[in-house]
Amino acid sequence: MLEDGGLVYPIAMRVPVLTVFLICFGAMGTSAHDSLYNYIEVRINPDSEIRIDFSVHGPELAITYGVDPLTTDTSWLDVLSPDQAEKLLDDAGSFILKTFQVCSADENLLTASDLFLPTLPEVKESWKMSEGARPGSFVGTLLLPTSLENVTFQYGKADKRLMLVVTRPGSFPKVYDIGAEQSQKIDLSP
After folding, report:
1. What does DSSP say about strands 37-43 and 161-167: parallel, antiparallel, or unpaired?
2. Residues linked to residue 42 through DSSP beta bridges, in sequence order
3. pLDDT at 92 over 80
4. What is the 3-state secondary structure of 121-167?
5. Which positions ≥6 away from 40 have C-beta within 8 Å?
6. pTM of the predicted model, to two decimals?
């Protein structure tokens, strides 16, 4: 236990306070470290398809190539051969399909044929754009029709939490913090 001015803070109180700090710090312009969270962004726009982006932190997939899994820049990709980098892109798609489900009426809408993964040059270009992928991350995209009323995100076994962000035009983004093997139902109305 810690003492501070006569107050005693048991470990059980420090962990939730640290978690709240990390979540709040992430909401202030930066985000929680990629080694703590997986990310999904749901973009709801009444004029187009619903876009769901799944971010996979690339360095964690590249551990077998000697890459530090805590790296948050993009330099790690330069040390890989083109074949290794392409394999990582495939591994990112496999990870998304294994770890997440997007369900409507008990049907998983996230399938290999519906998941779009960009090419490696597109990934690198995206890292340079302010609205692009998080640096060092691979992004898979699923497009859904606007006719869907809601979906349930099911998060599989993972060593991280899931930060699910839902954005709608004219509204502040809604953020869900989801633990492994949990689910969250999302209303898809604009």
Report:
1. parallel
2. 52, 166
3. yes
4. HHHHHHHHCCCCCCCCEEEEEEEECCCCCEEEEEECCCCCEEEEEEE
5. 52, 53, 54, 55, 100, 153, 162, 163, 164, 165
6. 0.78
